[in-house]
């Protein structure tokens, strides 16, 4: 059962072969047994989960069941969840019980998907290894001495270890795709604006986007159908006609032009990752796809641009954590300024502080043009490269990450080396494009390798089609860790 | 460009994050490495390029100036560190 696809679980629920309560209980038992080793969840609340499952069963009983009603999923602890502790991986919010639901949560609740709990993450989504969480590092289910990636590392590990059938994540610079690659699962970051950011604790608002993390492209399509939709509470939410992201899954790939950016296969890419991606390209060729070499010449500047824009937006967004209205407040202080300074010094971890300081600096008087404005101009150059590329290809393909999962502690003292992990994922965020990662093999150490697809704006259905056809021809996505 | 320890302390003060000398020194080294990475931007000729602030060309939507929310004050203040009579309490700022 833990191996089942979302549609298989939904079919069993529809056939009254199993109830949502029974499913939820089975996964809660598995979480209780394995989470102490993996640390994928920050909060598990069986009482709430079972009550939500009972409500889903009642929905079905009343004839109001939708496609996934009753299937339990896990939510990244970045989404405000009414009545649930919502920490964002930070001491700052270690006492924050959200008083409302994020739009994503509202949509899953309305569709009748009970929550299995809140997954661990890098503090305020700032990290690529899950080591910056106040709640401790998440362990990679394939090798517990290694990181699961980040920032949606708990979500990725929960799906990989089959502690949840699927999970929500968020991606600002690769936080869905990189952990998906490191844990051998499938994750999708939608076009910016498709999923509402309302109630999703903000990191870099012009880049943040929520998306599904699951065992397959088909499962991601079904989850995306639930997550997307216009929301007046998010000023950047796009008012578009609702689409069915599963509609093209079975389309043949004959004639599909896949763009291979030469910059993504250059120096810095691990040999085993390169080989696995090459093999995947050959597999797609067998299915009728035509590889086309493209160039994303400015993508080498994506990391510098991201480490100006991300921190700039973060320093502004995180100014709300001041110990006044919610969250941590320092126990002792002399005056208001001292209260702010001590609260923030105690509540934020080292990486979050570093990014706030970078952001404060690049936005400060005299440096704004040289950093912030220059970064925004290069952001346009990076986006323009993609526009040119999509004139000659339908989807872009490359590695998700330069290497496979690294050891816990290996990069934690060297921020710049950690940042380089997101070399291939950041460009899509800067351009607002949809991207996904799916498993395409293992390295000699048995660690999963991720294949990245990037589509043009609103081309999620096509991207999912490519991924699904690849997953029909291969079985990398159905492998699971055997050591659990 | 290289930040001094005093620069780091000044930025931390602007960001309202208390920092001591030891932390400022450690942070200085890390920030300088990160700014070394960012420096790659400076060589790029961006004359005539329009800054891109957002992934989509979006415009701020306007709505009718009407009440759309119910009163959630009690729920919101139930999680505040200190409140009294519906007000958030902070240290005295005006003598």
Q: Can you tag this structure with a few keywords?
A:
heterodimer; A: Amidase signature (AS) enzymes; eight-stranded mixed β-sheet; three-stranded mixed β-sheet; B: 95 residues; two-stranded antiparallel ribbon; 2 strands; flat
Please explain how this structure is put together.
The complex is a heterodimer of chains A (484) and B (95). Chain A has 484 residues and is an alpha/beta fold. Chain A has a domain at 6-250: Amidase signature (AS) enzymes (Alpha-Beta Complex). Chain A has helices at residues 6-14, 20-38, 46-61, 103-110, 153-160, 177-183, 217-227, 271-286, 302-317, 336-347, 350-362, 369-389, 415-419, 426-431, 460-473; strands spanning 41-43, 73-76, 115-119, 167-171, 186-189, 209-214, 257-261, 290-294, 395-399, 435-442, 448-455. An 8-stranded mixed beta sheet of chain A has the order 4-6-5-10-11-9-7-8. A 3-stranded mixed beta sheet of chain A has the order 1-3-2. In chain A, a hairpin with a 5-residue loop joins strand 10 and strand 11. Chain A is globular. The mean pLDDT of chain A is 97. By secondary structure, chain B is mostly helical. Chain B has a domain at 5-43. In chain B, 35% of the residues lie in helices and 4% in strands. Chain B has a two-stranded antiparallel ribbon. In chain B, a hairpin with a 2-residue loop joins strand 1 (83-84) and strand 2 (87-88). Chain B is flat. The mean pLDDT of chain B is 93. Classes of the chains: A alpha/beta (484), B mainly alpha (95). Chains A and B meet through helix 9, helix 10, helix 11, helix 12 and helix 13 of A and helix 1 and helix 2 of B.
């Amino acid at each position: 059962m833990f191996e089942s696809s979302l549609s298989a679980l939904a079919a069993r629920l529809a056939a009254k072969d199993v109830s949502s309560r029974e499913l939820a209980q089975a996964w809660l038992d598995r979480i209780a047994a394995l989470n102490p080793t993996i640390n994928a969840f920050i909060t598990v609340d069986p009482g709430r989960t079972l009550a939500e499952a009972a409500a889903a069963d009642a929905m079905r009983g009343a004839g109001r069941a939708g496609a996934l009603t009753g299937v339990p999923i896990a939510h990244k602890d970045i989404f405000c969840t009414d009545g649930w502790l919502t920490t964002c991986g930070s001491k700052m919010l270690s006492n924050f019980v959200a008083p409302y639901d994020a739009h994503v949560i509202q949509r899953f609740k309305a569709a009748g998907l009970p929550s299995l709990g809140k997954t661990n993450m890098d503090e305020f989504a700032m990290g690529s290894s899950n080591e910056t969480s106040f709640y401790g590092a998440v362990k990679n289910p394939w090798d517990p001495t290694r990181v699961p990636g980040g920032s949606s590392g708990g979500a990725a590990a929960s799906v990989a270890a089959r502690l949840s059938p699927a999970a929500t994540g968020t991606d600002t610079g690769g936080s869905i795709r990189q952990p998906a690659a490191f844990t051998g699962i499938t994750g999708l970051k939608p076009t910016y604006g498709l999923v509402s950011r309302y109630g999703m604790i903000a990191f870099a608002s012009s880049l943040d986007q929520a998306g599904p993390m699951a065992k397959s492209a088909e499962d991601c399509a079904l989850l995306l159908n639930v997550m997307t939709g216009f929301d007046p509470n998010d000023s950047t939410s796009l008012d578009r006609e609702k689409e069915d992201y599963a509609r093209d899954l079975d389309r043949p790939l004959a004639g599909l032009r896949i763009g291979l950016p030469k910059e993504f296969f250059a120096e810095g890419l691990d040999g085993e990752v390169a080989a696995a991606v090459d093999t995947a390209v050959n597999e797609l060729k067998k299915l009728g796809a035509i590889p086309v070499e493209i160039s994303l010449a400015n993508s080498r500047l994506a990391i510098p641009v991201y480490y100006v824009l991300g921190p700039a937006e973060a320093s502004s967004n995180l100014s709300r954590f001041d110990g006044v209205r919610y969250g941590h407040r320092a126990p002792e202080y002399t005056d208001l300024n001292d209260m702010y300074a001590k609260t923030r010094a105690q509540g934020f971890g080292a990486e979050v502080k570093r990014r706030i300081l970078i952001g404060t600096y690049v936005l400060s008087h005299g440096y704004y043009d040289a950093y912030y404005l220059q970064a925004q101009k290069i952001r346009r150059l990076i986006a323009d490269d993609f526009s040119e590329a999509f004139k000659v290809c339908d989807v872009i393909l490359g590695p998700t990450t330069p290497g496979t999962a690294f050891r816990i502690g290996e990069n934690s003292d060297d921020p710049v080396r950690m940042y380089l992990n997101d070399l291939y994922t950041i460009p899509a965020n800067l351009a607002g494009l949809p991207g996904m990662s799916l498993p395409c093999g293992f390295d000699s150490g048995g660690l999963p390798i991720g294949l990245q697809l990037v589509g043009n704006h609103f081309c999620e259905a096509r991207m999912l089609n490519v991924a699904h056809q690849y997953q029909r021809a291969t079985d990398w996505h159905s492998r699971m860790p055997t050591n659990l | 460009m290289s930040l001094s320890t005093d620069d780091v302390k000044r930025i931390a003060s602007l960001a309202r994050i208390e920092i001591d000398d030891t932390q400022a020194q450690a942070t200085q080294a890390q920030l300088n490495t990160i700014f070394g990475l960012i420096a790659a931007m400076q060589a790029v000729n961006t004359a005539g390029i329009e800054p891109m602030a957002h992934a989509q060309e979006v415009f701020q939507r306007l709505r009718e100036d009407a009440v759309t929310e119910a009163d959630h004050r009690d729920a919101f203040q139930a999680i505040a560190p200190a409140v009294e009579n519906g007000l958030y309490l902070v240290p005295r700022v005006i003598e």
